[in-house]
Amino acid sequence: MMDVQEIRQYLPHRYPFLLVDRVVELEEGKSIRGYKNISINEEVFNGHFPEVPIFPGVMIVEALAQVSGILGFKTLGQKPEDGYLYLFAGIDNVRFKRQVVPGDCLQLESEVVSERRGIWKFAGKATVDGSLAASADILCAVKKI
User: Fold this and answer.
1) SS3 for 38?
2) How much is the mean pLDDT over the chain?
């Protein structure tokens, strides 16, 4: 289990772009489960369908990339402060299945599919109340800075 303070050690993102509130399960080299609580106070709702607030699909994909990055960092025993970043390298097979709205708890899951020469492939899915909201194959590149 990781709270937001520990998550901040593994992600360089900060409010309003830190999209993982808690990690509830992590098996290094295998998988991670966490969540993002969606609040009406999210900055994005000021401009994204403000009369009918819907959490943007690209933000859901970013949240999946962030939990994937945590999994990669933990697996390699690295942190951003060590001079490494996980950069988005690609997204494949993205599908959106349901709207995510204020009050939802967005469950985030990611599994390692492969890693080769610093390029990681993850299979991610986001659910709300057990219903699939989005899925994507995410590619991340480890970069020494």
Assistant:
1) coil
2) 96
Using only C-alpha atoms, what is the Rg of the chain?
A: 14
Measured over the CA atoms of residue 134, residue 106, residue 59 and residue 33, the dihedral's sign is negative
pLDDT in tens, 36-72: 999 999 999 999 898 999 999 999 999 999 999 999 9
Please answer whether residues 96 and 134 qualify as being in contact, where contact means their C-beta atoms are separated by less than 8 angstroms: yes
Does the annotation count 13 as an active-site position? no
Which of 13, 48, 98, 125 is catalytic? The answer is 48
Give the span between the Cα atoms of 57 and 77, in whole angstroms: 30
- C-alpha 133/C-alpha 83 separation (Å) is 34
pLDDT tens-digit profile of 79-96?
999 999 889 999 999 999
Name the residue among 42, 10, 44, 38 with its Cα closest to residue 127: 38
What is the C-alpha to C-alpha distance for residues 92 and 123, in angstroms, rounded to an integer?
Answer: 10
Q: How would you classify the pairing of strands 119-128 and 105-116?
A: antiparallel
pTM above 0.90, yes or no: yes
